[in-house]
Amino acid sequence: MAEQAIIRIQNLYKIFGTHPEKAMTMLRDGRSKDEIFRSTKQGVGVADVSFEARRGEIVVVMGLSGSGKSTLVRCINRLIEPTAGSIFIDGQDITTMTAEELRKLRQHKMSMVFQSFALFPHRTVLDNASFGLEIQGVAEEERRKRAHEALELVGLAGWEGSYPAQLSGGMQQRVGLARALAVSPDILLMDEAFSALDPLIRKDMQDELLSLQETMRKTIVFISHDLDEALKLGDRIVLMRDGRIEQCGTGEEILANPATEYVRRFVEDVDVTKAVTAGQVMKRTEAVAYGSDGPRTALRRMQKAGLSSLFVVSRDGLLKGWVTADMTDIALKNGNGRIDEIMQAEVSTVRVETPAADIIPLMAAGQSPLPVVDDRGRLVGVVVRGSLIAGLAERGGNAQ
Ligand SMILES: Nc1ncnc2c1ncn2[C@@H]1O[C@H](COP(=O)(O)OP(=O)(O)OP(=O)(O)O)[C@@H](O)[C@H]1O
């Protein structure tokens, strides 16, 4: 896993003020942000934060106002200078980078999308979208082509000649997203990017980001103060309080096992007993392996579906077990095996009518996807990480 981390943050601190040393000592002694401010007049932005973001995942940094979300994310591109700690991007510590290295990193590796859209009012949509490329010195024709592609991606083809004021808020934020995507960054930093939008538009943008992400597979660090948004978007959630990380984990882990009383109170409004069932949130199984398949066939099917494991079924659809790409690789190297000889037969299942409250602990324990079977044991669908709690969050949001 470790080598997959594209962002690795280690013991990061940011103290605002001219004399951070005293505040650092007090923080290490476990003193609170309030105490430190009262006695030193130094502001604690981020305190001893460590976490990783893996390639292709959405990490949502969540917390109340003043908890340190923006400071943390601005340290990742060094818009804010950290007081102590390390930030590795692709294995390179950016806190020791020269100004030139940093400039390259910001231009090519990561882009930021702001809550306020931050568009230039006197530039057309196309020129706004191509701004990052202009800074990079990309030639005009290439710039226009790539900006146009990015606008197409976010559903704004045809609006290239318009000006920001002629667009709705949602459309303006699409331009902001297109501008960030046009430079083909590996990492997107999104600071409350959807918070200024009307609730319905906001939901559309969340759905669209998720659907874009299915093909883009960027690493996204998304700041939000909204739990529903965090549950819906985050592969993992970093929950902050007073500059520190209170808990970091998948939505399922946080709901099933809140690390502290604070987290428990934070998530208590998400009603896991609500009538959300596996059947309502399951997806059709895109690909399966058959017991009689050889490892090569199963592997090919996995690759085609972009999956790293498959459920194994009999010809009449009964769930028999599961197999991973690693298992098929080993079988191939040993030159033998039918899938039913190499598969793992033990697998937890849920039924169409199984309620969320019973599924979340299974997923929190690391089981994903979970197979859904009918009363005869036939595989009828899968519940994948995130979809269940996204369902809960959306229903919760509507009910309140
Ligand atoms: N430039 C600054 N100078 C002094 N203190 C600052 C500065 N920027 C942030 N802080 C302090 O650092 C702490 C964390 O602020 P930050 O903006 O990162 O929180 P946040 O979780 O993003 O909040 P919000 O959701 O309101 O933006 C706050 O106590 C804030 O007052």
UniProtKB/TrEMBL annotation:
Gene3D superfamilies: CBS-domain, P-loop containing nucleotide triphosphate hydrolases. InterPro entries: AAA+_ATPase, ABC_osmolyte_uptake_ATP-bind, ABC_transporter-like_ATP-bd, ABC_transporter-like_CS, CBS_dom, CBS_dom_sf, Gly-betaine_transp_ATP-bd, P-loop_NTPase. The keyword ATP-binding applies. GO terms for cellular component: membrane. It holds the Pfam family CBS. Transmembrane segments: none annotated. PROSITE patterns: ABC_TRANSPORTER_1, ABC_TRANSPORTER_2, CBS. It comes from the Bacteria. Residues 343-400 form the CBS domain. Residues 7-267 form the ABC transporter domain. Keywords: Amino-acid transport, ATP-binding, CBS domain, Nucleotide-binding, Transport. This is Glycine betaine/L-proline ABC transporter, ATPase subunit. It comes from Desulfocurvibacter africanus subsp. africanus str. Walvis Bay.
